[in-house]
Amino acid sequence: MPPAVPPIVQRFRAREVQRLVTSVVVHRHRANDPKLHMKDVDVAKVRMGTPLHNPFLPRPLFDRSSTSDSTGEADSASQADNASQAVKQRKKWATPKYSLRRQADLVKAARASGTLHLLPPGPKLTVAELEEAKQEAREKARSAKVSQLAVKKAIETRRAVQSPAEPVANVEGGLQSGEEMVESVADLAVPSLTLSKLQSLSLNSQKSTGLKRGKWIVRNAHALAKRRGSAQAGYPGIVFHWTGDVPLKASAKKNGLTIYAGRKRMFKGHKWERQLDKRRGKIAVRMRDMRKRIKRFRNVYLKKRVRPLSPAKPRKKETLPF
Hints:
Elements: H1 7-29, E1 51-53, E2 59-60, H2 77-90, E3 93-94, H3 100-113, H4 127-162, E4 168-169, E5 175-176, H5 178-186, H6 195-209, E6 241-243, H7 271-274, H8 276-288, H9 290-298
Parallel strand pairs: 1-6
Antiparallel strand pairs: 2-3, 4-5
Helix pairs in contact: 4-5, 4-6
């Protein structure tokens, strides 16, 4: 049984589908038809391979092809400086739509529910982890399909056992009699189930795997908001083509912790701990010459001390009044 999509992931996928329809269909066709409304857009006609910017990454607000670093050789150094300054001024980036905290919450909920393959890569989710999650999702879907086919075959076999006189069609396309069906029942893993139980099991497996027409299929963009809270609102049938340069993240296999993966040491220590050896050396030098330091300190103001028995010295040199 495939895992249920968490509500936080459902809302994320619904918003991205809405953004895909808005950016691809509406912006493309409103040039020809300015009165085009969102409810008139057919989501089934949207190409799911259309590039869509990754909401976990910053978005460039400039044309990266025209503002490349290689602006060409200038005639003079001043022209080259002016061109480089103009390029730097044009390179502005928009912040990601989702903050790092919201990205961490999304990845945490998706990892706990086994739906990590529904999210795009980003700072909190590496490309390697995403590929591994996609492979696991494919294997789970394949096993669910195999189990559903086994249940379907068991139902047909049980019906053949109940009516042995009439030959029934085999799953592979041939015909089998009732006696042959009885022999094949012994090879099945569920021979003790009744027909009603098998039918209910098949219905539940179809509901869980979503092989029937899913509830997430939306025929127009106006109904997207009503599908966000449903059980299949994660839109598992829609594949997004995310664009953007995902930052490379250091592997945590060496240290065991992700936050120390790119560092030589896990914790460099407090500042007083790092400077302790140097401080001890200075203290040792001062203690070695401490007697000389005390002697110099006591003799600094020795000549300036007041002597009560000596006559008072005038502050200024005496001068005559005329």
